[in-house]
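## Example record

The block below lists the input lines for one assembly entry, exactly as stored, with component labels intact.
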Amino acid sequence: MDLGKDMMLEMYRSMQRIRQFEGRVRDLAIASEIPGFVHVSIGEEASATGVCAALRKTDRITSTHRGHSHLIAKGGRLDRMMAELYGKREGYCKGKGGSMHIVDFALGILGANGIVGAGLPIATGSALAAQIAGRDDVTACFFGDGASNEGTFHESLNLAAVWKLPVVFVCENNGYGEFTPMETVTSVKDIAVRAQAYAIPGQIVDGNDVFEVYRCASEAIARARAGEGPTLLECKTYRWEGHVVGEQAFLGSAGYRTESEIEAWKKKCPIIKFEQFVLEGGKIGKPELDRIVNETQAELEAAVEFARKGILPDPSEVTDDVFV
Amino acid sequence: MTMALVSYIQAINQAIDEEMARDPLTFVMGEDVILAAFGATRGLHKKYGPSRVRNTPISEAGFVGAAVGAAMAGTRPICEVEFASFFYCAMDQVCNQAAKLRYMSGGQARMPITFRAVYGAVGGAAAQHSETVYAQFLSVPGLKLAMPSSPTDVKGILKSAIRDDNPVIVFEHLSLGRLREEMPAGDHLIPLGKGAIKRAGDNVTVVAIGAMVPKALKAAERLAADGISVEVVDPRTLIPLDLDLILESVAKTNRVVIADEGHLRGGAAADLSALIVEKGFDLLDAPPRRVTSLDVPIPFSPPLEKAAIASDAQIEAAVRELAGH
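Predicted C-alpha cells for the full assembly:
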C-alpha cells in the first residue's frame, strides 16, 4: 500500500520516540531517579505505531501496564509523560498515576491500566458510548497475550460482538505473561483463533512490521466504523527487556528466557525492518531518517529536563480529585 | 384532591424515566432490564428503544467494565446488577476502575455511573442472594453508597445519583418494594449526603440503614406505648455521610442504637459507631449499641434466616436497655 512519504516519516518518528523514551526510562528507573514499577516496550514499537497511525484524533484507545508505547503513538507528549513518571505535578495525572496509569482524554487516551485485562471492557464501553451517541469514533484496545486468559477478554469480545460495537481488539503477543511462557498457560497457539468463539474476524499479524500492522488495523477500523463490529488482531512481537525494569535484582540467576531467543528477535527489530524497507524503496533517504533520530533525541532531553525541573505535589493535594 | 400513592418500585421507574427523558445520553444496561424481573425498568425499552435500554449477558465483569468505559467516554450509564452479591463478579471493575480512575488520572476522568442492585434477605434466597454487600465498598474511596428506605427517598436519591458525575451504588431492598407513599410533584431531588429524621423523639436515637428503617419505626411505635421516645435517623447515604444529623440527634438523646442488616464485624454499624464515639464521646451517656445480622452467611431455611437477620425486636430490646441508663 502506498502510504505517502509524510505518513511513513511520522511512523518512523513514532517508533523512534517510543524506542528512545523507553531506553531512557529504563536507565532512569535503574538509577532510581524514577520510582515504582516500570514496564517498557522496546521491541514492540510497530504494533502501537501501526494501529495508532490508522486511527483518527477523535478515536480512542485503552492501554496496559506496558503502555508508554501506545500513549506515545497516539500523540502523547514526552515531557508530560516523563513528568508523570517522576511523580511531578506537571505530569499527565498530576503525579497521581505514574507509569502504569497515564491518561490524556484530549488525545482519546482513556488510560494505561495496572490490571491485566481491565482495558477490554473499558474499551468495549467506550465503543458503546460512541454507538449510543451516534458518533462513528472507533476504540482500539491494546492488551497482551496474558490478558487473553482473563475473563474480561472473553466477556468483552462477546459483548462487543453481540452489540456490533466499533472496537478493535489488539493483542500484542510478546510470548510471556510476566515470567511465564505463554504456551505453558494458554490453550491455543494463536490468540487470534479465539475470535472464532465469538463469531468475529481474527487475524494474525507480524507485529514487528509496522506497514502490515497499519494495513490490518486500517481494515479492522474501517469495518468497525462502518458498523460491522469488532475484530481481533494478534500482533506477534517480543519485548527485548524484562517484564519489569530491574527484575534481575529479584530474579537473580533464575532466568526464564534464553539469550539466543532474545537475539533472534532483535534481528527482527521493527525499526531496522522499517529502515531497510524505505531505504531500498528509495523514496526516503538516510539523512531524513537521521534528522528524525536527532530531533527525537532533542525532544527527549527536553522532556527529562522538564520532568527534573517539575514540582513535586504538595501533600495537601492528596485529597484532591477523589470525587468530581 | 388526594395524590396517587407510588410504590418503591414505581418510584425507581419514575426516576429513571424522568432522567432518560431529560438527557439522551443517559441509558440503562444490565441483566434483564427489558423484561425487568422486579419491575423497576419495565416499559422503558418500549419508550426509549433498544439503543438506550440494553439487556446484557450474565457477564458482570464485562458489562460493569463497559459501563466504566461508557461513562469515561461521555455517556451516563445506569447499570443494573440484579443482586448486590453479583458485584463480587465485577469487583475489579467497581473497585479498581470505577472508584479509582478519576483520582488516578489527576481528575481527568468523569465517572457518571449509577449502579443499582437489590440487597438483603428477602426470604429463602440463601447466602449468595441475601447479602447487604455495601460494607465491602465502604473502604473503597471513590464510590458513593446509597440505601434509600422509602419511595420518595429512592426517587429523589436515584435522580441525584444519575446526575452525579461520580460512581454511585444505589442499594434497593426487595422488602421495600411494595411500600407506598405520596410522591412530591415536580423534579423531586434529594441531595446525596443528606439524612432524614424519620421519627422525632427524645430518649434514644436509632440510626437505621436501609431496610432497617421500617423495622426501627415499628419498634419505636411499640416503645412509645411504654413511654420511651425514639428518634429514628436515616442517613440515606453512607458515602457521603450526614454525620452532623446523627450527632445532633445524639446530642439530644445521649444514647444511640445503630441498626444495620449487614454483619457486625467490619460492617456499616461498626463504622458509624466509631465515628459517633470519635466525634461525640462527650454526648454519650452509654456506649453505642449495634443491632446487626449475625456473622454467618445468610442461611436458607426460614427459621435459620430469621435467626440470622437483625429484627425490630432486637432494636426494641437494645433501646430498652439503653433507655435504662
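The longest strand of chain A covers residues 167-173. The beta strands of chain A are 60-62, 139-144, 167-173, 176-177, 180-181, 202-206, 231-236.
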